[in-house]
Amino acid sequence: MRDSADVLTDPPPRAADARIAYGPEPLQFGDLRVPAGEGPFPLALVLHGGYWQAIYNLIHLGHLCEALLGAGVASWNLEYRCVGDPGGEWPAAAEDLELALAHVDRLPFPSDGRAVLVGHSAGGQLALWAAKRASLPVVALAPVSDVRDAVSRRGSDSAPARYMAPEHFADGSPLELLPLGVPQILVHGTADDSVPYEMSERYVASAGPDAELVTLDRAGHFEPIDPLSAEWPAVQAAIERLLETRGSDARPR
User: Does the structure show a pLDDT above 50 at 223?
Assistant: First the structure.
């Protein structure tokens, strides 16, 4: 039986159609994948996790991006600065995302004007943050939606604590940014031992009608990003649903 954590060490997917820089720094780029055909296509802006640590990168989410091609969704899989990179503590990733969002309209593919943010784990924190900034719908997969809680649980020497100092919780932790003012779907497994399922429960309860929780019974932390998992269809359906409901007005603002 497949362990979905293997997605971190699986052979890389095929190379992206293009690697597009969105800024001058070495990590300010994203991998663009575009479905076959003339289009136009909607776009998923994808943000990888890894507890904001530089030892992880965008490669493992390339499999998710490849799966979206089959649904007719283009993707821009974004890299960004993390702890361990020079100046990688918050708000470096926020500064990177602002540049990336400003670059979306210049991506070389036939866009139909629709876009959705998709982020996993630490990338879920960034996706929720960017959703408010850009007025985009967001699908957050096992997201760290409460950084204050993550620091409290993990301790002052933990990755969350090294990433975000307490004075930034109010401007960087999604729970403290509510309301976001955009549709949000959080997808979380009840057996997640990395980011507790209860964090998403609390977040959605606080977010009110803008947010929905899709519960993956007995799933762990990596099933939501593993296209070979039994849970993947629920993730793809959430992405497609937000793209369908937003129409053509979902470009970053």
Answer: yes
Is the Cα dihedral 109, 241, 79, 14 positive or negative? negative
Q: Is residue 252 part of a domain?
A: no
Beta-carbon contacts of 166 under 8 Å, excluding residues fewer than 6 positions away, are 148, 151
Which domain range does residue 17 map to? 4-246
Amino acid (1-letter code) at residue 110: P
Q: What is the CATH number of the domain that holds 211?
A: 3.40.50.1820
The yes-or-no verdict on residue 160 having pLDDT over 50 is: yes
> What is the DSSP track for 168-224?
GHHHH-HHHH----S-EEEEEETT-SSS-HHHHHHHHHHHGGGEEEEEETT--SSGG
Per the domain annotation, does 173 fall within a domain?
A: yes
pLDDT of residue 249: 46
In sequence order, what DSSP letters do the residues of 94-137 get, joined into one string? HHHHHHHHHHGGG-SS-EEEEEEEEEETHHHHHHHHHHHHHT--
Average pLDDT value for the chain: 95
**Residue 178 to residues 28, 208, 234, Cα–Cα distance (Å):** 27, 9, 25
| Closest to 250 (Cα-Cα) out of 136, 101, 99, 139 | 136
Q: Domain for residue 253, yes or no? A: no
CA distances, 121 to each of 19, 114, 141, 168, 214 (Å): 23, 24, 6, 19, 15
Q: What is the pTM of this model?
A: 0.96
The length of the chain, given as a count of residues: 253
CA dist., res. 148 & res. 181, Å (int): 21
For residue 63, is it within any domain?
Answer: yes
Residue 253 banded pLDDT, cuts 50, 70, 90? low
